[in-house]
Each structure stands twice: as structure tokens, then as C-alpha cells.
Amino acid sequence: MLRFVLAISVSLVTATVHGPLALRWRRRVRVRREILRLVAAVRLEPYHAAVLRGESTEAAGAELVLDGYLRIDGEGAASLTEEGRDPARTPAHPLPAALLEAVRRHDPEPVSLGWIDWCDEEYRRRSGAYGNERRDLLPDLPKMPDGEGNRLLACCGCVGIVLTMFFWVLASVLLVAERPHGLREWACAVVAGLGLVALLCAEKAHREVRARTECGDPLGDLIRAEAHPAFEALDEGQRLRVLRSSADHSRWRGVDQVVVEESDDEDDEDDEWLDDKIWWEDAYEYRASDEDEPEARGPSSG
User: Fold this and answer.
1) Element at 46 (helix H, strand E)
2) Helix (H, G, I), strand (E, B), or coil: what is residue 178?
3) For residue 112, which of 124, 103, 121 has the smallest C-alpha distance?
4) Does the pTM exceed 0.70?
5) Coil, helix or strand for 83?
6) Which of 70, 247, 272, 297 counts the highest number of beta carbons within 10 A?
7) CB 180 within 8 A of CB 186
8) Average pLDDT, the chain
9) Contact at 8 Å (CB) between 252 and 80?
10) How far is Cα 68 from Cα 76, in angstroms, rounded to an integer?
11) What is the DSSP secondary-structure string of 58-78?
12) For 81, how many CA atoms within 13 A lie in the half-sphere containing its CB?
């Protein structure tokens, strides 16, 4: 009778533990299939993918260099070509057009693409508007269920693990306490033993469910799949110059900032020169007064 009770109780606990795992497997498979279906239907424009990667300025600069609007030297300074100074010529896409207008605002002084990306308010406004407009075209992907955000469920899971471990130890002791007699007791003992083994493998089964139904980041993989066509069309040297210019946020600041900063530097230099001049005049007067004092005391002492 004890073997029969053990077989029934172990089977019920095993079903209680593995039943939610099976339901989670099914739910995660359905969510994974839905995510992959939505991502497969996405058709990203090259500039949209560049915006999502944070490489929109590099892509726009590459197109301007490729079309002959810009030239970038080895130090990352971008300047307009004759075609770039022609107001009648403008790229069709709004992002390279906004970048070209930003460079034109600083002409004839060179400016880095990185400084425009960080500090040119008009370019930032237009590129941000393009990104916001394209963001609405992305699908709203369902969240993969994992139960990590539910504290009550996590607490119940911890209590369940403790109770299951206590039950497993108790059932194991009762199962091996005495030798079964007869075919029926042996069958019940085998059922109880298999159930205990299944309980022991519950944690591994949970990890397998997560690993086999994990879909990763399919939208991110799609975004990072290819670089912008204009950037790919450049040769290695041109790519390095575009990247160097995009990474430079302070050296080449265009005509407006250069003039302001030079005037500030000149004012500082004038102030330092004036301070040095006053100090030297004071030092000269002080030394001259020291030399006059002995001469004034000399005749009176004689």
C-alpha cells in the first residue's frame, strides 16, 4: 500500500512541476514564432537602419563624399567642393541634404562631421525628426515571457522549490526503506522512482525550455546585418577619413565657432600680457627705489 501511495503522490508532484514547464514551452514557442514573423515583414530603408545603429551621420557623409559634394582630409576636416557649393544641387534624401546644408553654413572653414552631429542644432532637429518619423514604422514586438518581473511568482517559485526538495528527500527515504514484494509493489516502486528522477531533472528541463525557445534579438540582427550602401561603396581610405571626421567632436568647429574662440583666446592673451607688463613695471620701480636709498644715505653718513 505504501508503494502505491508513493507512486500516486510522486506522479502528482511531478505533473505539478513539469506541467507549467510544458505550458511555458508552448507559450514561448508561440511568442517566438510571432516575433520572427513580424521581423521577417520589416523592410528597413538603409538610412533608417543607419539611424537605429547610430551611424546616420557617417552614412550621410559617405554619400556626400561619394557624390562629390564633400572632401575630407586625413585629419577629419570636411570642406565643400565646387559641386557642394552649388545651391542648385542637393541630395534627394533628407539626411544627407541636412548634413550638406550644415556644412554650407560653416563654409569656407572646415568642419568635422562629429561636431555637426553634436552641436549643430538645425541638423540635430532634422535628423531627429526623420528618426521619429521612421520609428513608427517598426513593429511592436511581443515580450518573451520569463516571469522575472513578477515578484509574487518568484516568491511562490522559491517556496515551491523548497517544498519539492523536502518531498523528494522524504519520498526517496520511504522508497528505499524496505524491499518491495510482488509485481504490484515493484511496478509502483518503478513509477515512483521515475517520478523522482523527473523531479531531479526539473531545473535542467527549465533551462532547456529557455535555451530552445530563445529567439535572441532578430530585429537587432536585421539592423546590424549590412552597412549603408554609400559607406560600402567608399574605398578603405575614404572610410577611415569619414570615420575620423565623425568621431571628431571638438577640433574642427566651422567658421562661426573658430572666430569666436580665436577672439576669446586673443582677449586672454591680451589680459596676460597686460598683467605681465604691470608686474614688470612694479618690479622695476621697486628695484629703482632700492638703488636710490643707498645713494640718498651716502653723503649724510660721510
Assistant:
1) helix 46-53
2) coil
3) 103
4) no
5) helix
6) 70
7) yes
8) 81
9) no
10) 16
11) HHHHHHHHHTTSEEE-TTS-E
12) 13
